[in-house]
Design brief:
13 helices, 8-stranded parallel beta barrel, alpha/beta, TIM Barrel
Length: 371
């Protein structure tokens, strides 16, 4: 199958419409959502990272332990763990999970969030450090003998990983970021470049930039798009459901916001201050064109939250949403991260109603292309 369908395992039960009620590490929720994703047929799940959350590699270890087939994409922030040690941590987990691991390198575009972990480099400096970090990861994963590395941020003498990933070529690296510095690193280092759920025009433009950056290095990265999904059995019901989601999200923010939300988001939306990262600015540029774009792309939550992360959605019946996703497939996207606003309930619905339709449409596309 030439498409990978990715879900999301949060650290606790929460969303833009649901205030977190439990602990910061809700083990029962993590286990339930992970097992549900495996049961309904997701290929992989994302385990997220931010500067005040539980540690993603350890959560990934637990998810791998309570599932059998479900693959994991573990978000990881470079710069706070020596890359040689991080490489061995990932390789060890990859062995325990029997090869089910990829890592999503999150450099970070928000200076305030990075400062929470004591990092005060500029954004361009962080991306330069990320480039070195990934290079050391790969050397540790693949070098059959001790190696030296001389960079601005890392200097390694006799580095060697005795534990290697299951795949001798190493662990695949997903990578995101839309600034010029990020695109340059993506071209050199990314196995898969991850985009937010932008318009088709924006996605085509960004894919073109990444391919242009990768070409001189003889590389051809894959592409992933992250979207929220709102489903119902009719188009009218789906859009009514989206409006209800927006009303509940607005009410929650007016009541003080979610415990997981940065404290300054409401101020940014009220004052019109631009977000610090290019990805959010691109989503807001799309949202400024309207709440409904392309076939069924909805920007309401992105506009409300100043596009904090994966906040655009496809709205419609399962057939309509699957058809809209295939427009991204036709642009070269082969991986889709799909999540909802009620994490467990929505994941089960997607598995029953949406994932089979996506796979069927992809199979039809691939059959026609082969013919």
């Amino acid at each position: 199958m030439s498409v990978e369908l990715i879900g999301y395992v949060g650290h606790f039960n929460s969303s833009e419409t649901m205030r977190r009620a439990g602990p910061a590490l809700d083990i029962d929720h993590i286990e339930a959502v992970a097992k549900a994703h495996e049961y309904v047929g997701f290929d992989r799940v994302l385990v997220a990272f931010n500067s005040n959350s539980a540690e993603s590699i350890l959560i990934g270890q637990h998810v791998a332990g309570v599932t059998e087939r479900l693959k994991l994409m573990i978000a990881h922030r470079p710069g706070f763990t020596a890359p040689t040690l991080a490489a061995r941590q990932f390789a060890t987990l990859d062995q325990f999970s029997r090869g089910r691991i990829v890592t999503h390198i999150i450099t970070g575009g928000n200076d305030s969030e990075l400062a929470q972990d004591g990092d005060h480099l500029t954004k361009d400096e962080r991306y330069a450090r990320t480039g070195e970090y990934i290079e050391v990861l790969r050397r540790e994963w693949t070098s059959p003998e001790p190696f030296n590395f001389d960079g601005r941020y890392y200097k390694v003498r006799g580095g060697f990983g005795d534990v290697k990933p299951v795949n001798p070529t190493g662990i695949p690296i997903f990578f995101g970021g839309a600034s010029p510095a990020a695109i340059e690193i993506a071209g050199r280092q990314a196995d898969v470049y991850a985009l937010y759920g932008e318009t088709l025009e924006q996605v085509a433009e960004l894919i073109g930039r990444v391919r242009a950056a990768a070409g001189p290095h003889g590389r051809s990265p894959g592409f992933s798009v992250s979207l929220r999904v709102v489903l119902a059995d009719t188009e009218e019901k789906a859009w009514a459901k989206a409006e209800d989601i927006l009303a509940r999200a607005t009410a929650l923010r007016n009541a003080g916001g979610n415990q997981q939300s940065p404290h300054n988001i409401r101020r940014k939306r009220a004052t019109g201050e631009a977000p610090p990262n290019e990805g959010s600015r691109r989503l807001l540029a799309a949202a400024a064109k309207g709440a409904r774009l392309d076939k069924c792309l909805w920007t309401g939550i992105a506009w409300l939250t100043a596009a904090q992360g994966n906040t655009t959605a496809l709205v419609g019946t399962p057939d309509q949403v699957a058809d809209a996703l295939l427009d991204y497939y036709d642009l070269g996207v082969r991986r889709f991260l799909i999540r909802g606003f009620d994490p467990l309930v929505d994941a089960i619905q997607y598995g029953r109603e949406l994932l089979p339709r996506i796979r069927a449409l992809v199979a039809e596309r691939d059959t026609r292309a082969a013919a």
